[in-house]
Amino acid sequence: MNRSSPAEAQDRSAVQSFDRAIAILNAFTPECPSLSVSQLARITGLSRSTTHRLLTSLQHHELVVQLGNRDYTLGPHILRLAHVAWSRVNIPAIARPIMEWLRDECNETVGLHLPHGDFARTVVDQVESRQPLRRTYTDMGQAIPIHQGAPGKVLLAFRPLELQERILVRQLEEATPYTITDGEELRAELRRVAECGFAISLEERVVGIATVAVPIHNHTGEVVGALGVTGPKTRLTPERLLNLAPLTRQAADRISSSLGYIPRESAAQSS
């Protein structure tokens, strides 16, 4: 019969305590930012005494703080760690392998788009289709008016209404005969995009090109980018774009998850 050494038993105990402490930290959500000892014990399945002991240790390291009503919430050291982690985030590097996966799934060009100031966006990376007739971004890094095309509409639709209005009251530049340049029409389109979670462009920025795009979220839920599938309109018909929207969203969700984003429904289920 094998017996564990005292050192091995101590190591297992330390790992178990660490796992339990992480479970306590994970219990806090945007919907439940403060919790009592009893609530934390119920969520984690730990005893009240164990929960209280771990909270004392977490509080010592400023990972949680106790409020005036004796509930607990995440502490300032969490913010310090988050700041360090976010400062090292490289969205294109995180997105690249997922973009390659999406390209392989649909065999169309995949583009990554980020905001460029308040009124524009830029293409920061692409993974091209392997088909002879394909979309190739030739203006990577250049500022593109944010109202033109599906990726820009996604970025604009999830921006504060005040900023949207600043753009909608401007004279909207036309890139093609199909660009939406009427403020009221674009306002209605942005509402639709916000409701359904994706945007479609049929030659709105480049004649002969169609695109579907979805948002990328960061750890706070903010939309920090857009992922798009783009190609010739002869292949990317409106029906095909609608069919590609869920797959594109799946890829964008994987990128968002790597940025620390937890969808509200997932957070609600875990609590």
Shape: elongated
Please tally the β strands and state the result: 9
Strand order of the largest sheet: 6-5-4-9-8-7
Specify the CATH homologous superfamily of the largest domain: GAF domain
Can you walk through the features of this model?
With 271 residues, the chain is an alpha+beta fold. The chain has two domains: 6-86, Arc Repressor Mutant, subunit A; 89-258, Beta-Lactamase (2-Layer Sandwich). The protein has ten helices and nine strands. It has helices at residues 6-27, 37-44, 48-60, 76-87, 91-106, 150-157, 161-168, 183-196, 238-258, 264-270, and strands at residues 34-35, 64-66, 72-74, 109-116, 120-127, 144-145, 199-202, 209-217, 223-232. The strands form two sheets. A six-stranded antiparallel beta sheet has the order 6-5-4-9-8-7, sandwiched between helices. A hairpin with a 5-residue loop joins strand 2 and strand 3 (72-74). Helix 1 crosses helix 2.
Layout: helices, strands, pairs:
Blueprint: H1 6-27, E1 34-35, H2 37-44, H3 48-60, E2 64-66, E3 72-74, H4 76-87, H5 91-106, E4 109-116, E5 120-127, E6 144-145, H6 150-157, H7 161-168, H8 183-196, E7 199-202, E8 209-217, E9 223-232, H9 238-258, H10 264-270
Antiparallel strand pairs: 1-3, 2-3, 4-5, 4-9, 5-6, 7-8, 8-9
Helix pairs in contact: 1-2, 1-3, 2-3, 5-9, 6-8
